[in-house]
């Protein structure tokens, strides 16, 4: 068998790309370390004083812009909020190819327990072997730097693209502030035929191609009680006592709601399935629980209590139906309790992150599967070539603007938002190899 001229050209190009990545990786890693060194906590993050962190996001987009301007990109600022500047960097193609954009957010969460980091400082990049430690290394400054490395390698390898290529370094993702970030950039006219969101996708396999992610709701459920001195408890709850007129503890009423939703969650574990997701992902997660009488004292029965939930639902579901199902379930459970029957729990649906769901038949999925296999080998026997992204991302909002977006990036979500966040730099270089091949194939090469 003779390999065709095209195959020989493709393998020669791959060799040039990989050589270029080896040469350029140290410089791109320096960019990543500089990005990690900038405190770019999302200024809208709960508990964060905006003034203390404002400007960090912009400092990151400026650094990425400086790197890309050397690669012939035209830089555009998009700033719905003038203190939080998004970068839309555009490399014009020679014409006739498909366009592609990379999306990545430069904001990070606030580090919880910063004193627990072994480096002593979440913003100090520390390299130990192939692991780079630092806040944002995985989520997701690493993904943006990998895209930069891939693009630099293509130029170094002498590749001229037919289709336009864009990099969107955006603010606001960690608080779903897409109107200031991703959506603002798209609405400013920076569109493309498809997008890669460079969020950390190394689950279940390294550098998983993830065309789908679950939707989620942020839900708060409140109940009221009848706050009184704790000494009235006997009269309030014991047989022969006075009952609710002596006091009702909202904390214990709310526990009944939580238990009811645990039952619903068990049911979801059996009934809610999607082929791309591991069983059990669709769930009801209570993350905040609070009740008191207005002062944080145990000397009272609480007169109000609330629980905050993150609700993960399957892509095929109607979000309104999910909301109705949860409210109905709590309503039925409340019928079993005389107080809750008369004083029903109230629901505050605080935010909704829509699903992302691109068909596995989309041509960009094909291109990514081929590129990934060329770098890492084919997926293990019996394993699908794609899987779900088990978090949310701006892919949802790109899709809402009509741009099919697929998540693929270096890093494991397990290390995101965690003490000692880290990124494996071998995987990061492999990701750049995948990106470079995918860009060349998707956009087409002029020579
Ligand atoms: Zn992220």
TrEMBL record:
<dbReference type="Pfam" id="PF07687">
    <property type="entry name" value="M20_dimer"/>
</dbReference>
<protein>
    <submittedName>
        <fullName>Acetylornithine deacetylase</fullName>
    </submittedName>
</protein>
<dbReference type="InterPro" id="IPR036264">
    <property type="entry name" value="Bact_exopeptidase_dim_dom"/>
</dbReference>
<dbReference type="Pfam" id="PF01546">
    <property type="entry name" value="Peptidase_M20"/>
</dbReference>
<dbReference type="InterPro" id="IPR001261">
    <property type="entry name" value="ArgE/DapE_CS"/>
</dbReference>
<dbReference type="InterPro" id="IPR050072">
    <property type="entry name" value="Peptidase_M20A"/>
</dbReference>
<feature type="domain" description="Peptidase M20 dimerisation">
    <location>
        <begin position="236"/>
        <end position="333"/>
    </location>
</feature>
<keyword id="KW-0862">Zinc</keyword>
<keyword id="KW-0378">Hydrolase</keyword>
<dbReference type="InterPro" id="IPR011650">
    <property type="entry name" value="Peptidase_M20_dimer"/>
</dbReference>
<keyword id="KW-0479">Metal-binding</keyword>
<dbReference type="InterPro" id="IPR002933">
    <property type="entry name" value="Peptidase_M20"/>
</dbReference>
